[in-house]
Amino acid sequence: MELTGLFFYIVSLLILGGIYALLCLALNVQWGMGGLFNAGIAGFYGVGAYTSAILTTAASGRHLGGFSMPVPIGLVGAAIVAGVTGWAVARICVRLKSDYLAMASIGIAEILRLVFVNESWLTNGSLGVSRIPRPFADVTTGRMSDVAFLGFVWVIVLLVYVATTRLYESPWGRTLRAIRDNETSASAAGKNVEKFRVQTFVIGCAVMGIAGGLSAHYFRFLSPTATDPLLTTFLVWVMLMAGGSGNNKGAILGALCIWTIWSVTEIFTNRLPPEWATRSSFIRMLLVGLLLQVVLQRFRAGLLPEKPAPMKFRKE
Amino acid sequence: MTEFVNFYLFPALTIGSIYALGAVGISMIFGILRFAHFAHGDLMTLGAYGIMAATALMPVNPLLLIPFGMALTISSALFVDRFFYRPLRDLPTIYTVISSFGIALVFRSLIQLVWGSENQVLVAGVRPPLVLFDTFRVSVLHLQAIVTTAIIAVLLHYFLTATKTGRSMRAVADDPELAEVSGLDTAKVVRWTWIIGAALAAVAGAFAALNTSAHPNLGWNLLLPMFAAAILGGIGKPMGAMAGGFIIGMAEELSSYHWIGDEALISPSYKTAIAFVIMIGLLIFRPQGLFKGRLL
Q1: Which domain holds residue B32?
Q2: How high is the pLDDT of residue A205?
Q3: Is pLDDT at A202 greater than 90 in this prediction?
Q4: Which residues of A touch B231 (CB under 8 A)?
Q5: Distance from CA of B208 to the nearest CA of A (A)
Q6: Could you say which of A71, A153, B26, B279 would form a disulfide bridge with B230 (CB–CB 3.0 to 4.6 Å)?
């Protein structure tokens, strides 16, 4: 019995780890390749979660819905809506210093949160959307559906990993890194800096939307409190910084390591006496905040530093 | 008319004062150190809690205890700058932005650890409003906030135009390289930027906490309008940031006044969105702000 409990604990750990890995890969496109600071990850994640939830749920009088679409279409919708949101923000801000993009992305995350809470015709307000379907619901039952979902999440992580790695090595990715490292010389070489940055930001936001959609299907329930905006955004940043910005393997590794530390410490702190248990969550946040400072100052390269692929030339 | 003044104008000016005091620090830090300080809201929260802790020891008007809050915010700001921001100063400033984002979380979790995460009031009980000319009923706190901000604005203007340190600060904000080669003490300018920014953050935090209640998200929730105010006033222009704070505060509060018909013009639950819309509009049409600040 202990063992099955442990098994399903690991399954849930890896599912959420996979969702964080997606967020991390997305942030790696924006920050690791493009050098863009996105402080509103939770906003794009939330918009994806709501889009996918609304597209896939059966009709309900309490919120917009009744489309009953299959889950993959919900996820595609999540990617599109999150991508368009990201496009709107990026269009306005990329020509300015990256700090402005950070402020605007925090702003958009805040506005989206207000929309989720206030527009109850759309999202059922703070009561949330329930009965969100999971993929393979008809072939799996009970806890086995967790295992099936684990596979589903990691297949998507793998697909995104392959896609982002191809992007990184492609001429597009090389241009992007050139812009990141020296904007002036890249634009002198005739590259349209703004266009590349907007594209990067949109791709990243779309993947964040997919991650949000997956979380909605995993929990089967979605309300505005599902994510603590600051904590989600912040954890993803720490994950990417610790794992190695610019390196996709590092992004996944960082996500898994930090997520494991974050959830395993929760088990220990929950066993503390109640007055300490509530405080310990603040201690954990404090330590993660300090960890980011240490990483920024001492290990900026992360666990797996960025290693540009060698240039391959076609043989004559 | 009376209703407008009592329930909209004075609260709007109060919110405006809070934004103005916070935005001055953000604008000066952005202008002189070249980064958007994401921990500024939480610095305000820290100031508010510092004052609250002092009221527990000395039961006097919390406004008299603002120096304790200032001491706490100034020492924290200087500490954080020395150990967390300065080591990153040679890197692109975006690293400092990320670091300040983390520091915001550190401040907040420290506050929650020490004081808990519940709402806490600084002054219990209801104070009767002041009645002016038999028609206007104004809360004493609102009047205090507006008058204090006005006094601070005059003092700040004097400091920036008449003292040597103040003039060096403006020089560094305008052109750091030129200021450096002219022999200005940049380290001193940076120190004074933090001292003034943190001190005003404590005042802003005190008024924000007195206006509602003290809770760990107090300052973070005000961060976005303060950024908007700093951009509106022009980065590196402290007096512009003051004006920006008042404009954003007025726009937010007055947007829920029933200008047309009986309904609020914009639902009060979307107040925060006003600041964001103004900020986006500025970034599109006039990123240097109303008063010709620096465009970084």
Answers
A1: 21-219
A2: 93
A3: yes
A4: 100, 103
A5: 20
A6: B26
Q: How many domains does chain B have?
A: 1
Q: Is the pLDDT of residue A84 over 90?
A: yes
Residue B87 belongs to some domain of the structure: yes
Q: Which of residues 269-288 of B touch A (CB under 8 A)?
A: 269-270, 272-273, 275-276, 279-280, 283-284, 287
Report if residue B135 sits inside a domain: yes
User: Between A72 and B103, where is the model more confident?
Assistant: B103
Q: What is the pLDDT of residues B188-219, one digit of tens each?
A: 888 989 999 999 999 999 888 888 888 888 88
Which among B38, B102, B224 has the least Cβ separation from residue A107?
A: B224
* B141 found inside a domain: yes
Q: Is B98 on the interface with A (CB under 8 A)?
A: yes
* Residue B220 to residue A230, Cβ atoms within 8 A: yes
DSSP per residue, chain A: -HHHHHHHHHHHHHHHHHHHHHHHHHHIIIIIIT------HHHHHHHHHHHHHHHHSPP-TTSS------HHHHHHHHHHHHHHHHHHHHHHHTTS-HHHHHHHHHHHHHHHHHHHHH-HHHH-GGG-B-----TTTTT--TTHHHHHHHHHHHHHHHHHHHHHHHHHHSHHHHHHHHHHH-HHHHHHTT--HHHHHHHHHHHHHHHHHHHHHHHHHHHS-B-GGGS-HHHHHHHHHHHHHHH-TT-HHHHHHHHHHHHHHHHHHHHHHHTS-HHHHHHHHHHHHHHHHHHHHHHHHH-TT-SS---PPPP-----
pLDDT in tens, B25-41: 998 898 888 888 989 99
Q: For chains A and B, count residue pairs whose Cβ atoms are closer than 8 Å.
A: 117
Question: How high is the mean pLDDT of chain B?
Answer: 83
Q: Span A279-285, mean pLDDT?
A: 80
Chain B residue with Cα closest to A241:
B98
Q: Residue A114 pLDDT > 90, yes or no?
A: no
Identify all chain B residues contacting A234, using CB atoms and an 8 Å cutoff.
Answer: 101-102, 105
